[in-house]
Design goal:
By secondary structure, this protein is α/β, with parallel strands linked by helices. It has one domain: Glutaredoxin. The chain has helices at 2-12, 61-74, 91-100, 114-118, 147-159; strands at residues 29-31, 38-40, 48-54, 80-86, 107-109, 126-130, 136-141. A hairpin with a 6-residue loop joins β1 (29-31) and β2 (38-40).
């Protein structure tokens, strides 16, 4: 129930945080879901980063996480990373989801929803494509598999490379 309250507050609050294309991405440090330790967005400065907010109860996340994993694996060796931020209240729910839908990129846990709030989440899933300088390049709310074509084009443009379209 706590997440529902947080999501409601996010959708209907007036916030002073900046999370539109061109804005500086809010910094964060969060614990990892499947490994010990924490990761910070600042560790990835100089890389293109796709920050993806997700939850185990999110139907579209069942499709987005595996497709993002494919793209991330295809770009191995490029200055690119996906950081998936889970918003489940119960960490066991998130870990159970990842057993069903494993990914090779870092997965983090925002147990209080504070990072989601700083990014002004509008729905689930919501993702932020961040450029090498730490600025938000694009925001994607919701997900359907056909979105991957646009996401791949945006990532390719930031990396300055050509990617095959699946």
């Amino acid at each position: 129930m706590r997440f529902t309250t947080i999501l409601f507050a996010l959708l209907f609050s007036t916030s002073t945080f900046a999370t539109s294309a061109g804005d500086t991405a809010p910094q964060f440090t969060l614990p990892q879901l499947t490994k010990k330790g924490q990761l910070s967005l600042s560790q990835y400065r100089g890389k293109v980063v796709y920050v993806d907010f997700w939850a185990s109860w999110c139907g579209p996340c069942r499709k987005s996480l595996p497709l993002l994993n494919e793209m991330r694996n295809e770009l191995k060796g490029q200055p690119f990373e996906v950081l998936a931020i889970n918003l489940d209240e119960e960490i066991k729910d998130a870990r159970g989801f990842l057993k069903q839908f494993p990914v090779s990129y870092p997965t983090l846990h925002d147990s209080e929803g504070t990072i989601a709030e700083s990014y002004e989440l509008k729905g689930m899933p919501t993702s932020y494509l961040i450029d090498q300088k730490g600025n938000i390049h694009a925001v994607h709310t919701g997900f359907k598999p056909s979105d991957m074509s646009k996401i791949r084009q945006e990532v390719s443009a930031l990396l300055g490379i050509e990617m095959d379209q699946p």
